[in-house]
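pinging the channel bc i need a second pair of eyes. not urgent but kinda urgent?? the chain im working w is below, pasted from the shared doc
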Amino acid sequence: MRQAGRHLPEYHKVRGTTNMLDACLTPELACELTLQPVRRYGVDAAVFYSDIMIPLKIAGLDITIQKGKGPVFPAPTSTTNDVNTIISHIDNDYSPITQAVRDACSELGSTPLLAFAGAPFTLASYIIEGGPSKDHLKARAFMKNDPHNWDRLMTWCAERSIDFLGAQIDAGASALQLFDSWAGSLNKDDYKRYVQPYSQKILQAFLHVPRIHFAVGASHLLEELAISATAVGIDWRMPLSTAAKKLPHTALQGNLDPASLFLPQDLLAKEVDNILHEGSHAYAHIFNLGHGMPPTASPDNVKFVVDRVHESKIR
């Protein structure tokens, strides 16, 4: 998963007091933080170290990452004038991203690098809410109350993610992951009407590379997430064998419960083996966590998981 190395002591030593967005836009830092998990664990691919807010930051939006809270905007977006202001930002200087990806790919050699970006609904939710939200009520109301401006904002967000992913892929990334952290808050009809067209715009722009689509708490949307995707990420709530029945011709990614990383290794081994067994039912399986890497995870346990997967006879 993205930011996989944030639980590592070497991550904190290198990043120091540099804030998140500045670290992402400093090529030597972004490159180094991308490489650290690969060096320590020997995983099969690297995920580019960045943040879903980076294309909005590059576009000129005023964003801060507050510790313990997440991305924060000075004011929520709620009017036509607000949307006009947002979509007037179109600066696209991706040279720090391009340099970081090129440097990382050079260091990685034959190990592939995965690009990533946030999906439009998650980006628009942060913009409309002004920051993180547990229920995304404002965003969900906005999409129905003002569909015209919703379309303008979502189109703008999709274009920013396309630019972000394009910069990474042009610089050497081999595949991409599109993260829709908050899509699980939507029912299927709303997702299909107000969100899916914009995520599809992104995925269909990169049909020449493998595409992983991931949303949290979205087991009711699997068929929709799979359209135009090579693989679908499954969070820890649904067994992979169940997802495989819904998506018999799509690769699955996941889905070890991140809480398992805090178990004794004898219990952790059973959790890993169960995921491998469940994944054997899928068209193809990319072993991964079912959501992000906990910052307090034990590096020893993460290494144990990687080794257990590599040593498994279920391939």
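so The chain has a mean pLDDT of 95. and Strands lie at 46-47, 64-66, 70-72, 113-118, 175-180, 211-215, 231-233, 251-256, 285-289. — does that match what u expected or am i reading it wrong
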